[in-house]
Write a structure and sequence with these properties.
The protein has 200 residues and is an alpha/beta fold. The protein has helices at 24-31, 54-64, 80-92, 97-106, 122-134, 152-168; strands spanning 13-17, 43-44, 47-48, 65-68, 140-144, 172-177, 188-191. Helix 3 (80-92) packs across helix 4, helix 3 (80-92) runs parallel beside helix 5 (122-134) and helix 5 runs parallel beside helix 6. The protein starts with 12 loop residues before the first strand and ends in a 9-residue tail after the last strand. The structure holds adenosine-5'-diphosphate and magnesium ion (MG).
């Protein structure tokens, strides 16, 4: 995968759009410091993420990024509240019960606040994962395929929710998707090409 100079300014919303296998998740993982690029540089919040050692990347991610994984990765043994509390404890060194309750209400999961992830529907799990990503007030909110499992109206609501949540804290928003339904919501887009076919 090759990307030229690309910059996302603080507070902007951007979409990485491309078909399956085009490198969206790899790109998200590089932005989040979970993978290191083999070439080029990546700067996040004024720091050279790609040049930091692993512990430095972890610290920068914890301080500045809220991540919504494609596979959600909620902690199965913890309730929705417990998942948010753990994220706050790790990122901030403290928990904020009022903020957790506010966010869980904001994503429409108040009635499921004590549920374990396996008791949630896919859409509920996605909303829980978004609340978890937001509960540390990240400067950069990153989501991988947040709408792919949702029907049209819920996909629109998910994007509304992420725009509102990002704007409420002046966070930057970066979404990766193959879901063309949401493309029209973003003025700022990075289109990734389909992977090259392997010769038979
Ligand atoms: N851990 C990995 N090791 C090697 N190749 C990988 C790994 N993860 C993904 N890939 C490959 O990198 C390419 C891009 O994958 P990915 O970033 O998951 O794309 P997308 O999210 O757009 O579907 C694919 O060809 C995939 O098979
Ligand atoms: Mg992917």
């Amino acid at each position: 995968m090759q990307i030229g100079d690309w910059q996302l300014h603080a507070g902007q919303h951007a979409l990485i759009l491309g078909p399956s296998g085009s490198g969206k998740t790899s790109f998200i993982n590089i932005v989040s410091g979970l993978l290191t690029p083999t070439a080029g540089e990546l700067w996040v919040a004024g720091e050279a993420m790609s040049q930091l050692p692993p512990a430095g990347r972890d610290a920068l991610r914890r301080r500045t990024i809220g991540l919504v994984f494609q596979t959600l990765r909620l902690i199965p043994a913890l309730s929705v509240i417990g998942n948010l509390a753990l994220a706050q404890q790790l990122a901030l060194g403290r928990t904020d019960a009022a903020e957790i309750a506010r966010l869980i209400d904001r994503v429409g999961l108040s009635h499921r606040a004590d549920a374990r992830p396996r008791q949630l529907s896919q859409g509920e799990g996605q909303r829980a994962a978004i609340a978890r990503a937001l509960c540390t007030k990240p400067r950069l909110l990153v989501a991988d395929e947040p709408t792919s499992a949702l029907d049209d109206s819920n996909a629109e609501r998910m994007i509304d929710l992420m725009f509102e949540a990002a704007d409420a804290t002046a966070a930057t928003l970066l979404i990766a998707t193959h879901d063309g339904r949401i493309a029209h919501r973003f003025a700022n887009r990075l289109d990734l090409a389909a992977p090259q076919a392997v010769a038979a």
